[in-house]
Amino acid sequence: MLKLEKRPQPSQFWTYLTPLLAVALTMIAGGVLFAFLGKDPIVAIRTIFWDPLFSEFAFYYRPQLLVKGAPLVLIAIGLSLGFRAGIWNIGAEGQYIIGAITGAGVGLAFYPMEAWYIFPLMVIAGALGGWAWSMIPALLKVKFGTNEILVSLMLVYVAEQLLASMSLGLLKNPEGFGFPGSRNLNDYASANSWIHQNAGMHWGVVAAFIAVIFAYVLLNRHMLGFQIRLTGEAPRAARFAGVNPNRLILICLGTSGALAGLAGLFEVAGPSGQISIDFNAGYGFTAIIVAFLGRLNPIGILLAGALMALTYIGGDIAQSKLGLPAAAIQLFQGMLLFFLLAVDMLTNFRIRLGQKEVA
Amino acid sequence: MDLSSINPILLLASLIVAATPLLLAAIGELVVEKAGVLNLGVEGMMITGAICGFAIAVNTGSPVVGLIAAAGGGAVLSLLFALLTQFAMANQVASGLSLTLFGLGLSALIGQDYQGVKPPAFPKGDIPILSDIPVLGPILFSQDFVVYMAFFLTLGVWAMLKYSRAGLILRAVGENHDAAHALGYKVVRIRVLAILFGGACAGLGGAYISLIRVPQWTEGMTAGIGWIALALVVFASWKPWRVLLGACLFGGVSVLQLNLQAAGVAIPVEYLAMSPYLITILVLVIMSADRSRAPASLGKGFHAGS
Amino acid sequence: MTGTLLSINGLTKAYPGVVANDNVSFEIGEGEVHALLGENGAGKSTLVKMIYGLVKPDRGTMQLRGDAYAPAEPSAARAAGVAMVFQHFSLFEALNVAENVALGMENPPGMRDLAARIREVSEMYGLPLDPDRIVGDLSAGERQRVEIIRCLLQDPKLLIMDEPTSVLTPQEVDILFETLRKLSAEGTAILYISHKLEEIRTLCDNATILRLGQVVGDCVPRDTTARDMAEMMVGSSLLVPERAGGTVGPVLLKINDLSVASPSAFGTSLKNISLEVRAGEILGLGGVAGNGQDELLAALSGEIPTAPGAVELDGKPIGGLGPVARRRLGLLTAPEERLGHAAAPDMSLIENALLTGSVREGLENRGFLKWGKAKSFAEAIIERFDVRTPGPDNAARSLSGGNLQKFVIGREVMQRPEVLVVNQPTWGVDAAAAAAIRQALLDLAAGGAAVVVISQDLDELMEISDHFGALNEGRLSDIRLAKDLSVDEIGLMMGGAHGMEVAHV
User: Fold this and answer.
1) What's the domain range around A93?
2) Is A182 among the domain residues?
3) In a domain, C485, yes or no
4) Domain check: are C264 and C403 in the same one?
5) Considering chain B, what percentage of its residues have pLDDT values greater than 90?
6) Mean per-residue pLDDT of chain C
7) At C452, which CATH number?
8) Closest CB to A338 among B80, B108, B109
9) Which residue of A has its CA nearest to C355?
């Protein structure tokens, strides 16, 4: 009989190994899944994980890694701060949408004027939009103790409706022949987040790296980061240490909202180019997987974001080359989180073979 | 705009249809939470139930077999959650989220061949005599049997929690799992059973949407109903009858906004469509003042050795 | 006493890294009151858990009335006539008394019959209880009655009581002992677990003494001095803390008519509390658990804000300040719950040193942390307070209760407080560590600090306090000189018998 035994302290070894183990297990289970769908599992796994990086067309795919990875990392960094403190913002998708709307809205308001300050203003507006959207669950939690999980999630659906309304109404391209969707910001030089489009470089990538460094310093060197970790580990001890839980809720939700809003702005001003009904691609939810896969650690999130971006790109290749359904990739990503949570126990528990304890 | 096109009797009858999936999912989650477990995967279990029920009903031609399959599908998915939280000691919030993400992917994959397919029709269950009562008849007694079943399930859960020993033990486990363990109750086993029940109920609720309410399959068709069901449990202060009341309230809101859309009210469609979510938030705010009814061990992991 | 009821032969149970019970054997006779005596960590709890079917022994056997007895789970133990009153109650706060009782019974009657039985039995044994009340609203003593009634309703042959008097006033203890003697006279054997020697001498027929998981002796308590029993229990002679008897200075901490509501649903609100503590003085605050101790500590630590003037430090109103600001001014505290409140279980000792030490030890500079300095601070605590751990990088949860408590108290003492408030400083701590902690508190007071010790251990309070007061239902008794007090007076200050009566059988 297998028995779980709590370790006296978390295992360093397994802390680093569990994400790798989870990836390996997901590949195996994913392979089985692909085989069920009638695809050669080895080929499918290679197409997803190897081809984007090392095939003959890798020069085209590698920049995509930055494009897909940047929003994931940016959002996941913000989420990880809250998750560490036990504050669950799962509405990043909504904050991402609102950031894109406010940011793009500011840019479009200046159209067709060209000026250096337009893009910075859009960045501020995007961050503020996401921040404001996340302040709704934050303030409700502080004032009334309302569950932030449910409120932030409900606001995703509200944001999606707002997005639809904006694409069809206020932000609709007046020269778009009646099609829904805004003007394309890629055609508007002052409102463009690209630095080097062929290399996949846009300001969102820069922002993601800055966010990683910032979060690393915060969590390891700063009192606020210590308070965030302490609150997540032992809320009563945090109170005793003098942490103001409400301040932490506002900071954590606000930061994650602002970062998600930024991610939305950089996306709309770059890779996506326009506000449209199906603008959001689920980055806000996938970022939850990225945050956990990276063990809520900034460096880990960077690596996890890259890996997840790889599955997006590889999934696209597999879809066109092997006819692997897009949903299979979505399922694959979901499995990853599953396996991670399952093997995570190894950091805190030891598995023993032994006689059964009366439970 | 033509409000007179709205028929109040039909409106109320469709309110009950809209309330049923919510009621099923929420009453299941209520039992789970009463056992001290917070399963945020309701949305994932519902959508999995929706597609399982749909696919099996189409393939067998029997909507009833479809419903059974939906309950089974929801329960199997919830078993994954049970494994993660009860045996691997994973965080319940994270596990619930993963269940939802997983369920959405799984249902999309299974459902890709079922887009646009028409499911076998579900028989209406007119109750003789009662359904002939004017007004009340068509609203209450001319529904399908799942509606009646959901009602009796609510009744059963209420009676079990209030009067039976099993209900007492379930509540005890949810209040203080250490004490329940010290008295010799099998905390993990009881919680796993509750989680399975919740999964089956959520699966049924999902299939009700895809087989009866809509009825067809589209990706992501539960559109947050699972999350609203979670909110409903808070709204109900963990009391079965208030879950019923809440389900009717939310069913009413969603039916009303659909009718207003159809009637061409001057409010843009998008703003009407967001109203159920906004009202959920509003209700959560009002109810969050009173947290005292929440089971004391809710969301906390239990390990016998610690 | 007629024959042997339960005989225990060579029970052994090992956990990773520690042998909790090593070849333990003894016998309990029918109707005997048998004491199981030992320090914290001696293995008493593991032993009774094996008897009650919660833990399975690795080796060894038990016989109940001559038949093999190996309960697979508590319900089997209950069916065999073994009942247990837990130290940390196995009660459900949100449920009512009758429901709680029903949960501890094998085949409870219907709720209405059960309520009637509860009334009847509780009055018969002088432990009045209302079956419809919610347990969360009951006092600690009343909660214990629920546990006892739950056991008595099943007519047990053996009643296990784990440290039952820690939640009772001296008067209540007397009444409980009367009840237990009656039960014993009716033929119920009682296995009485305690580390309080005087209680055992008054109540028990025989005693088995455990040390580090082994039986180190047995005795007839009435014929053995407390000192001899203590030495068997501890294994060496005990150090009695020394009191330097320093001079008393000005008032450092003053509480003026403090009333605050408890933040938790079943907590106790504080009502009109006033007190003064002077430099160089130790004020002991007794009282049964759940009478406002946690709330008083939280109001002093700054976790519960109060009216500014309600708490004064050195004449300055500080009631409106948070924990950090109070620490800066010199008011330090150590709460009762070590894991999760005073310390974060999964964090290292360095991080836990930072937890309260950042301000006074200068471990941060404009928000940025000085890990090197924090590590030295943690090492200094470990060194001076003899905390047994491989090093400061280890997680708090890896320490034993006594070692973690030394760390937590040491962390505050090392910060040179003006005023130190501690709650249950030696709870669950072995005798040597307890003596070290008490000595540290005495030294601190001798050095000119004002110390408030909140404790449920009256012996401890009498040993180190200059003045004594007691909390009862959120109110504070008059504060009196400790050395003048008798046990009876202390008991009355703690609220007397709280409605208990002597058994009517």
Assistant:
1) 38-324
2) yes
3) yes
4) yes
5) 51
6) 89
7) 3.40.50.300
8) B80
9) A241
Per DSSP, the three-state class of C211 is strand
For residue C128, say if its preceding peptide bond is cis, omega within 30 degrees of 0: no
User: Does the beta-carbon distance from A9 to C347 stay under 8 Å?
Assistant: no
pLDDT of A1 reads: 55
Burial class (CB in 10 A: 0-12, 13-18, 19+), B160: middle
Give the orientation angle of helix B92-111 with respect to helix A326-343, to 10 degrees: 160
Asked if residue C317 is part of any domain, the answer here is: yes
Inter-chain CB proximity C356 and A240 less than 8 Å? yes
Q: Are residues C214 and C325 in the same domain?
A: no
Residues in chain B: 306
Answer yes or no: are the C-beta atoms of B118 and B216 closer than 8 Å: yes
Is A20 part of a structural domain of the chain? no
| Stretch among A52-66, B158-172, C316-330 having the lowest mean pLDDT | A52-66
Report ipTM for this prediction: 0.88
CA A253 to mean position of chain CA atoms? 14
For residues C412 and C324, is the Cβ–Cβ distance under 8 A? no
Provide the pLDDT for residue C2: 62
C116-160 per-position pLDDT tens digit = 999 998 888 888 889 999 998 888 888 888 998 999 898 899 999
Contacts with B, A 268-307, CB within 8 Å: 285, 288-289, 292
pLDDT in tens, C291-304: 899 999 999 999 99
What is the total count of domains within chain A? 1
Tell me whether A81 touches chain B (CB under 8 Å): no
Q: Write down the architecture of domain B3-118+148-287 according to CATH.
A: Orthogonal Bundle (1.10)
Angle at A266 between CA A265 and CA A270, to 5 degrees: 120
Residue A274: CATH number of its domain:
1.10.3470
Residue C358's domain comprises 251-493
Output the DSSP codes for B169-190.
HHHHHHH-HHHHHHTT--HHHH
Residues 6+ apart with CB under 8 A from A127: A99, A258, A259, A261, A262, A265
Q: If you ran DSSP here, which 8-state letter would residue A280 be given? A: -
A58 close to B (CB below 8 A): no
- C469 bridge partner residues: C285
A233 touches chain B (CB under 8 A): no
A343 within domain boundaries: no
- For residues C157 and C126, the answer to whether their CB atoms sit within 8 Å is no
pLDDT tens digits, one per residue of A178-192? 788 888 888 888 888
Say if the Cβ atoms of B184 and C94 lie within 8 Å: no
